[in-house]
Amino acid sequence: MEKAIHKFPEWVSTKIVNFYNEQGIQHLFNWQGSEFNLQCANKCWEEYCGGAFRLDYRCQTLNHCNFSAWQVASTGKKVLFVLPYISVAREKLHQIQKCWRRDDIAVCGFIGPQASNPNEWIGAVCTIEKAGSLTNRALSEEWFHEIGMIVVDEMHMVFDSSRGAHIEHMLSKILLWNQQSEEKVRIVAMTATMPELRRIGEWLNNAHVYEASFRPIMLNNNIIIGSEMKEINGDNRVVRVFSEDPLINLAEESFRQNCQTLIMISSKLEAEKTALSIAMKFQQLKLTDDSMMERLKERADGLLFIRNGLERHGCKDRNIMAALAWGISYHHAGLTIEERECIEMGFRDKNIIILVATSTLASVQEEFLPMT
């Protein structure tokens, strides 16, 4: 794995650096700290008051561009972060709020029913549709000049047949604004999967394009057929043979190692059945494995907090409560929004150690609605 050897840029606020240090992040990865990459980030800040600089990142994280976005926000200009899914946007909202409040920079969310008066925030985390509505509102109410930067994550969504048009319309208006106004809006677009990266760069008024192939966390791709687990790449050799249900075996091992596990299932019914099956397995093991009980004792207060939160929102699902007693839960569209938020927070706080979910967790998106 590539070593993290580069220091944070000198112009990044000490308060922001301290926030990352508290998260265990002391340095930048090589691809983040490379001379060209830091020049891009520096230029995005230094040319802020001048030309129409464009920067297109192909990377796996929003963290690095937070530095430039924070610098723009520190001048009082607004910064918009645009993400495709509600669940991802909420995650990023919580992270940026915790970070930027160190410098008293207000960040709000335009996610689902959430909305705020433009005078109440400097940073905004939006879904695609809400970002489009927000920029339209800024134009109609004549405060578009207050926007200094827009960060678009998962830029490859511009090719999506149903939602790509919203991104294209929004960025086209910004490009037109930049042609006619002295106060430019910086555009940062990021993607890990776009084949037409340089074409998009040309469309964004010849954006600077930066590509990186480094992945901080290595992925091991395996496939389970029957009781055998094989490597997908290479010679497809068998790396393991299971004596019982492979899914339950892997979940059990993860629990013993105190590692979180996310299991994606295709249907609501199967998600519930899988979570309960793992919980029943843990119940059988509790009498012979003290370490498993220690894991649960460590999370007892957190799990009780989640349970109380679910009950406050009227949850009477016995299955979800039974699984939760073992640090396990499920997440699907059959749960209310409030119930899903409680479970998402529990998994984010590492109190729920095994989460069985349908695609609802990863692909929540909202309909395009006018913003009031």
In short:
With 372 residues, this protein is an alpha/beta fold. The chain has helices at residues 14-22, 30-33, 35-46, 63-73, 86-100, 128-140, 164-180, 197-203, 246-256, 268-285, 290-298, 300-312, 318-324, 337-348, 360-363, and strands at residues 54-58, 78-83, 107-110, 123-127, 147-152, 186-190, 208-211, 222-225, 228-231, 238-241, 261-264, 328-331, 354-357.
Structural class: alpha/beta
Helical residue percent?
A: 40-55%
Following the backbone from N to C, one meets helices and strands in this order, namely HHHEHEHEEHEHEHEEEEHEHHHHEHEH
CATH T-level topology of the largest domain: Rossmann fold
Number of β-strand runs: 13
The CATH architecture of the largest domain is: 3-Layer(aba) Sandwich
CATH superfamily of the largest domain: P-loop containing nucleotide triphosphate hydrolases
Indicate the proportion of strand residues: 15-25%
The level-1 CATH class of the largest domain = Alpha Beta
Unreliable stretches covering 5 or more consecutive residues: 47-62, 364-372
Oligomer: single chain
How many helical elements? 15
Q: Main sheet: which strands, in order across?
A: 3-4-2-5-6-1-7
N/C terminus separation: 48 Å
Q: Residue-averaged pLDDT, rounded?
A: 80
Q: What is the total number of structural domains?
A: 2
GO molecular function, one term: ATP binding
Pfam family, one: DEAD
Domain Helicase ATP-binding: 69-212
Protein name: Helicase ATP-binding domain-containing protein
